[in-house]
Every structure is written in structure tokens, then in C-alpha cells.
Amino acid sequence: MLRILLVITALLLCTRPVLAAPLKVSVAEFKVTGATGNEELKGTLQSMLASRLSSDRINIVGANEEPEVTVIGTYIAFGKVFSLDGKVVGANGKSIGRAFEQGDNAEEIIPAIGRFAQKLAKEIDKMSLAPSAASRQSELVPAVLPSTAAAGSSVIIRNETPVVAKGSDIIRQENRSGNVKNGMIQRMDGIMNGIVQLRRVEGGGRELVVALAGELLLYRQQNDVQLIGTEKNFSGNEKILSIDVADLAGDGTPELYVTVFKGDRLASRVYRVENGTFRLIASDLPYFFRAIAVKGAPRIYAQQMSIDEDFYGDMYEVAKKGAAFEIRNPIKLPKFGNVYNINMIADKEGKPFLVLLRPDGLLAVSNEKGENFWMGSDKFGGSEMYFSREDLQNARVTGSQQRKRFIEQRMIVTKKGELLVPKNEGLFVVGDSRSYSKNSIYAFTWNGITLEENWHTRVSQSYLSDYQYDEEHNELILLEVVSKAGVFDKGASAISIKKVE
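Now predict its structure.
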């Protein structure tokens, strides 16, 4: 008897139950009733729910894999009130459980999706707790611990399959090894919409200008970010749409170009920022501004607004003549093009092309004649920044006397010819309200025929409101909204620096 007990004890010490493999779960496209933008909302809700369900117990699978469990969701809106209803179904078609969540307005959709996912996960867990024949057969199989990525790893370098590399924050394509290292990150109160690097300073730091809706902030960034100046001289009906920087005077002191929307018109400004102060040198300019680097040297381009059109006519280069500013050298824009969603690239021979971020999020490249040369299939961009204009003509259709015009994220072309394009995801749209929940930045090279992806940053779980690239020091400067504003909360943003290697 003692011998038998010793054998059993030895077996128990050498074995342990295998942890159950995560369940394969598919999230079906939502059925949407009573909401504006039904088609877009179907996929958006599907994506948001899938990202929140994914865990060590739940493996979200695509259409090409056979799921063990399927989640079927419905979104119903009655005015501002909405309801989320879900059913969990097994592979045999049998219902496992149900869950629901509701809210009183569009701002509650994202937190409601989170609560909805938690409830559904509990129902899905009922399936994982049910013992299968396979699990019964493997109860005494010796445990094998899965291999883990290196500590602190945040980069995948691609060959045939993704490979995680230590200390990186960039996913690179085959034969393009490298990484991005996380640097400084600092949280600040308020929703910040724009950022530019004004200049480098002694000691390896830099001066940054950050824009809120009605305020400009000057920061010095080294080991942390310190506020050294402000400009608050904006009225209640003025809204800062974008900020850009360039040294058009050529005197070594860059000018700050601030696009301001006032009431129903443009009233933009230009500042010189010196010794911690903002000095206004031009105001009430009827232009949208955007900095575009041509052969590495940033220039300011402008576009106007008309009574009927939000973006009117050609895009012009801005020139500084003494104390005055003028526009010259018009550039014909392709269909859907405006000063915010366009940039210039060149092939290996230096032949110029225009790259356009279309309203549907697709990248398109056209030649000098405006002919469409290439168009991609993946969506990029995505912005919550907008201005509103009176639109009585369509009020009966839209239900609002105002229309929102969203302006696109900036694209950056480096001196090496690399095109940087941001991508905000996790979108939901209810009426004219937009909200994004995650972002990444992609880098492409134009080979004369197509845009080839070089690398992209790992997805960050925040909305990217703006960014810059310090090419001299290979650093991405990211401005993210980490907490949305609410009725009793003014929200929060964060500036982070990532070293590209």
C-alpha cells in the first residue's frame, strides 16, 4: 500500500493540469437601427467590442477561422438614448447567454461598450468552463510553459512571421530591421489639438508649441515638459484649428502659423515666439495654413474659404514680404484634395507626385497633370478636429442648421523621401459626433509605382490629435488625448517622445 501511495505522489509532483486554450470567438457585424451612418457604425461597433473582449481566455478570430463561439450584437437608438444587446451562440447554434447595456447620449457609447464586453465575457466563460473530451484526456499531461517575449519588448520585426524584438516600438517589414524606443511621456490637463517643434535648445532639449481650442502653450522639453509661456488672447467665438511652423523670413527665427476659425470665417494669425513670449506679427488672415516640406525645407501653403465652399480654389505657397504675407504659385489639387489632406512626394528620379488622403481614408497618388496614378486599399487618417458652418439648405435632411467639416491629420515627408501617415482607429459615429480610441503611425516609400510600407508604430490605446517628426534626431513627438472631456471633466492629453532607430 505504501508503495502505491509513493507512486501516486510522484506522479502528482511531476504533472499538473494543462491550462485550457483560449476559446476561439468571432464577433459578427452589428445590426444597427435608428442611428445616422448605419453602415460605418456596424463595423465600428464590431471592432470596438472585439478589442474589448480579447483576453488570455478569449481569442478573437476572423472569417477564415472556425469559431467555437459567436457573439451577435444589435445597436438600437431612440433619439439620444441607445441600447446594446448581445447574444452568445455556440458552434452548434445553441444560445449560451445574453447581455445588454444602455446609455443616454453618444458620449456614453465607449464606456457602455466596455461594460457590455465584460457582461458578454462572463457568458462566454460558461463555455470555457464546460469540460471537453480533449481536456479530459489531457488532465495529467505534464505542463509546458509557453515561450515569452523579452522583458520590455514592444516591437515586431517582420520576416515571414512577426518577431518581437527587445525595447522597440516599431513594426518593420522584411529586411528593414530597427526599432523605436519609448522616451519621455507626460500627462497634462485639457484637450490639446495641435503640436509643433519650434526649435532645439541647449542641453539636447526642444521648445514645443501646443494648441488648445482657444489657447497656445509654449513648453520646454528635456527630461520633462515645463510650461514657459502662454497666449490666451482668443475670443469665445474663435477656435484654433491647426498650428504650423516655418522660417519664411530666413533669419533663423521660425514663425508660428495659427489657423483660426472665427464665427463663420477664417481669421488666422502669425506669431514670432522669442524669450517665452508670443509676439503677434499678422492677424485676421483669410487662410487655412499647413506646413509642407518640399525637398526637406518646410514651406507654408494656404487655401481660402468661400461663402459656399469650405475649401475654395487652388492651394498657394505663402511668401513673407517684409511685414506682409502674400500667396503665390498656385497648385491645382485633385478631386477631394485640400490643404490639409495633401502632400508632395517624388520618385527616385525626382519626378514630383501629389499624395492625397481621401475622405474615405484611402491613400491616392496623382501626377502633375492631376491624373490618378495609384490608390491604396487600406484606410488611414481620422480626425476629431472640425469647424462648423451654417447649412440651412440641408437642415431638413440633417436635422441641424450647422454642418461640421472635419479636417484631416497631417502627413509628413522626410528629407529621405519617407512619407509618414497617421492612423486613428476604434471610430464610432453618432450623427456629427466622432470618437477614436487608438492610433499608430505608418511610414511609406514611393517607388514610382506604389507606396511601399517601411514600418509602423505599435498601436497606442489613445486618440492621436497631432504629431511631429524631428528628423535630425530621429524622434517622433506624439500628442495624444488620453482622457476624453465630459460634463464634469475637461479631459487630459499627453506628450510622448519615441526614438526611431
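Residues 13-19, 131-165 have pLDDT under 50 and may be disordered.
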